[in-house]
Amino acid sequence: MDPAARRGQRLRLRDLRILLAVVQAGSMAKAAQALAISQPAVSKAIADMEYGLGVQLLQRSSRGVEPTRYGAALARRGQVVFNELNQGMKEIEHLADPTVGELRMGTTDPIAASIVAPIIETLQQQHPRVALHVATGDLSTLLFQVAAREVEFAVSRLNEEVALQGMAVEVLFHDAYVVVAGAQNPWVRRRGVELAQLLGEAWVMPPYDTVQGRQNAAAFRASGVEPPRQAVATLSLNLRNTLLATGRYLTMLPGFTLALAGKPSLLRAVPLALPQIQRPIGIVRLEGRALSPLGELFIARMRAATKGLTAR
Fold first, then answer.
1. Beta bridge mates, 251
2. Domain 177-277 part of CATH 3.40.190.290
3. For the segment 82-105, what is each residue's pLDDT rounded down to a tens digit?
4. Beta 249-254 vs 129-136: how paired, if at all?
């Protein structure tokens, strides 16, 4: 018998689930309560695993029960096992009935509003029993969630500050920034505007010490001017859009947010030419991890929705 088969005989899924429950709860008694089994059954399962593997998995401390380095390694890999099993069950459910299923994905706020939301609307109109969980954050946060298998994939603007080791990347399109104002702002009706003329206006933008803020600052410098003083520095899209609607503020946004905004949008591009610093927008997922059928369907719709934005 090969070593992998021998290890499989020493480790059962039931026992592995018990170990995960103990590590999460920090107590055998609490784990037993959560699993609706007796505490002696929990103790025996842990003891059997330790005997079969020949290492100590748990140790008692003043804070309760903590995993040893062996227990932590097994728990970490065990979580992956159960995540993959759960993914397999979802795939079976979808194959049995393609109109149901659950998808967990991550994205940034601008992409969520401009690209993801319209896809969700049409998808749920066609398949009302489909459930989608959408996490939002910056690229670093999204990559952590992808690596932890909390989301199946993430869609984000890619940048050189964040490494993508161990990730499979598909670029959907490239995009540049544009200067944007509310529809009532007088600058949107002028022609021949230069960026230097706008530096004294009230700007609402991400803080310059964030990834988005640094990219905005780079767009200004590429035009030969230093970034302006921010009247309001915020990552809140709601606050930004509320201020822009007053007609007093300017901001810098990815061009696709206007291209996909539709008629109800109250935002307009200020007619000026910025250097075309094209940055990729792409899908990121774990290398070697198969997508669920619902994930493949969602990505196919994203490809179709963004096909005409720029050449890849």
1. 180
2. yes
3. 777 777 777 676 666 656 678 999
4. unpaired
